[in-house]
Amino acid sequence: MKDMSPRSRVLLFLVSTPIALLLIVGGLLGAAKPVAQQGLPHLRVFEDVASLVVKDYVEDVNVDRIFDGAMRGLSDGLDGASAYFTPEEVRAFDANAPLPAGEVGIVLSRQFYLRVVGIRDGSPAQRAGLRTGDYVRAINETPTRDMSAYAGTRLLRGPVGSTVSLMVIRGNPADPHKIDLVREAASGEAVTVRQAGTHRYVRIASFGSATAADLSAKLSAGGNTPTLIDVRGTADGSPSDGIAAAKLFVKDGTLATLAARNAPNTVITATAGDGSLTMPLVVLTSNGTGNAAEVFAAALADNRRARLVGEPTAGLAGVQKLVRLPEGHGLWLTYARYVRTDGAPVHGRGLRPDVPVDVPTVGFGQKPPQTDAVLDRAVQELQRQTAPADQPAASR
Q: Is 152 helix (H, G, I), strand (E, B) or coil?
């Protein structure tokens, strides 16, 4: 090594680290040999490209920059949560410093840029008109093209009262909009219930460790009143919080299955005492339904406790861990995902509603529709379910 030229050392570094990444990840997934075998032809191409760039590019290259780009490229095609971590990001992860209290109420995923998934009710993001599906091209003028959802989430946090600036794309990439948001502490009830004629409307705006108990307390007094549960735009919380909430409605059966590459599935089933709430249910979903809300909706749908009305869900129901790589680098990797009772993945695919409803895209400056098409259709579905058996089908 001491006799190697600087360029040769750079080339060895560029080529050997991706190989190490493949072997480490393959070992984690229990498939080191197949992954390495499948990757070798591509690694030869990578070696040729790295050699050409280092030796023949018109000017000296920034090795750190091209290496980071190569590593991000390897992780970019996985899913919206997995990401390459630089040594600085690994050190920040290890420090585990608490985040500032100020936030803007956004749950992010990654799709080329950072993409808005969930938006908390009453948050600065909601009041500013941000919507699920918006792309965040920059945060405080820092481009998000090479930013992980993990890093973007941390960058959105700050002291209460401070301002964060977002460059947002909706529809036309050539027409970005700058939106300034004032960070504030999260507030508002996670679960709200209101009576609406012959049925109840339940809004779960956020999932946390107390959500199941809150639901139980607020719904137990109402008996078997037909109920709508709205989890549109709700994408925070651990899947375990969604499972705990689902236990209130499912008496027996499989609530969730966590599947990994090379380990037995973890199956969570209802047990004695579960399913205390027996009212007819309809669950409202959107493209912003993810994580805890998505696992909750899947549990109710798979056990035929509720029909889903609205849009397909976000497909964010995975579990990540940090895989450590040479030279202090890391890979934030989805190593397990929740699947449905038929084995279909929730993570990466999402849930398809029983009753799909098209929701129009609202451009910047446009007023949203005066009527809520998903809510109206959900009410109709609940009425259909609870109509007397002898009532003519045409009037249901």
A: helix
